[in-house]
Amino acid sequence: MIPIRHVIRSFSLIAALLISSGCSQQGRVIGGSAAAELPQAPQIEVLFNHRDNSSYQSPLTQRWRNGDDLEKFLIEAVEAAQQEVLVAVQELTLPGIATALIAARDRGLTVQVVLENTYSTPWREQQLTHLAKHQRQRWQRLHQLADLDGDGITSDEEAASVDAVGLLRDAGIPMVDDREDGSSGSGLMHHKFMVIDRNLVITGSANATSSGIHGDAGKPSTRGNVNHLLRIRSRTLANLFRGEFMTMWGDGPGGRPDSRFGLGKSAGGVRSVMVGDTRIDVLFAPHPKRHADHGLNWLSRLLATASRSIDMALFVFSAQQLADALQEQARKGVRIRLVADPGFASRSFSEVLDLLGVALPDRNCKLERNNQPYEAPLRGVGTPRLARGDKLHHKFAVIDNRTVITGSFNWSPSAAHTNDETLLAIHSPELAQHFTREMDRLWDTAELGITPHLRRKLERQKIRCGDGVMNGSPNPNRSNS
Q: What are the pLDDT digits (tens) for 179-204?
């Protein structure tokens, strides 16, 4: 087997040779004086992989690009661990992180990993013809990344050397997925967190993948999905996350079916901890719809606390309840800004359409059940310009420039009632400044209102469906990233 340090070095060199064209606008470090650094909140640090006043050398292209290196951030946290590393992530494909976890285990640390079952099989063992379209695209990207010598053929040796889940399995790192409870899996094991030494929590919106952090293989214009990670040093908070992890872990691989995922977990309410002078509220999903503290109810209550402003950067927004809560705040004069992922914003079940005052029937000419477009559309709604292939993957809001809502939790019914998720409310003006700056960065490139793309889509559906639009299409109950 090729040593992984040689693999990473070879991959970087070959990627640089393969990409001979000039650096795209999306991948270039923007000139001019950098904005002043903002102070980080005590014991809390946040990083953004697209921010303008930081830069790192992309492992895909070897060119310098704007943003924080989230992969390096995770690797360094694992390398600094002294006792225990617990990882609960939907997807892990970065071999550098896998190698760091193996090295930690070899130093005598406890290392345990929980994955979503869709991504818990080494990709080199998957058969392309047996995969759904999204999975086939993922498989092809990973094979392209693994083609270390650039000859267009991914050998078995190359694949084995960079398959992160395969590396963990071959090294004997204990892993479970959301079938460990004896079921076919929860909606999604959608968590994105690490707990280190029972004292440090790393969480946010980023999956541990090249597409989620750096960009796609063979596409030098991409810079990865727009994401962030938080590092919070608190023994009390770490204990909460560790408790969620151990509920899913049970007694580990095999043994008794005592792991709990999805609605099989005992639904708890919002719990609060103090990190220095900062209050952090935590909710782990999912919950039954009847539960008073399910995620959508809590988000509605948080939005209702706004007196001046609500900023949102969202990947999926498909919860009518939250669209209704925002409409009530808009009527009270609260300033609302929303930037949404362009791909999801124009789907028939997207609540972004409600905020814009339009309704889009689905492929069967049906409208989402209980669809309620605003009579007075909001002006502060848009989609940012991103490189083709990149997604706005944040799931955050900032209320009155004082409270940050974040986590793995998309604003969807599936996040509240089906998936394993993290939802945080962090009451910190210092932290809010960082998220507001990220919001402003996205806002500066956003197309506001009904974009030409959405207008064409509306016109096509009008021609296709005519006056035959019917109500009753259910809101899809699954968010997938």
A: 999 999 989 999 999 999 999 999 99
Asked if residues 191 and 88 have their Cβ atoms less than 8 Å apart, the reply is: yes
What is the distance between the alpha carbons of residues 73 and 76, in angstroms, rounded to a whole number? 5
- Identify whether the C-beta of residue 300 lies closer than 8 Å to the C-beta of residue 322: yes
Q: What is the 3-state secondary structure (H, E, C) of 170-237?
A: HCCCCEEECCCCCCCCCCCECCEEEEECCCEEEEECCCECHHHHCCCCCCCCCCCCECEEEEEECHHH
Closest C-alpha to 98, from 12, 169, 2: 169
Residue 379, classed as helix, strand or coil, is coil
β-strand partners of 362: none
Dig out the tokens for 446 from the structure.
């956003």
C-alpha separations of 333 from 73, 340, 412 in Å:
40, 21, 25
Query: How do residues 357-374 score in pLDDT, each as one tens digit?
Result: 999 998 889 887 788 999
Check pLDDT > 50 for residue 72: yes
Per-residue pLDDT tens for 337-362? Answer: 999 999 999 999 999 999 999 999 98
Helix (H) and strand (E) counts for the chain? 15, 20
Q: Is 420 strand, coil or helix?
A: strand
Task: In whole angstroms, give the CA distance from residue 79 to residue 114.
Answer: 19
421 forms bridges with which residues in the sheet?
285
d(Cα 272, Cα 430) in Å, to the nearest integer? 19
Which residues make beta-bridge pairs with 193?
A: 88, 203
For residue 410, what is the DSSP state?
Answer: -
Residue with structure tokens 């509306």? Answer: 458
- C-alpha angle 279/283/284, rounded to 5°? 140
Whether the bond between 452 and the residue before it is cis, its omega within 30 degrees of 0, is no
What is the reported pLDDT for 467?
67
Q: Distance between CA 100 and CA 412 in Å, rounded? A: 34
Q: Strands, E, within 92-166: which ranges? A: 110-115
- Asked if residue 28 has pLDDT above 70, the reply is no
Q: Residue 298: which H helix or E strand, with range? A: helix 295-304
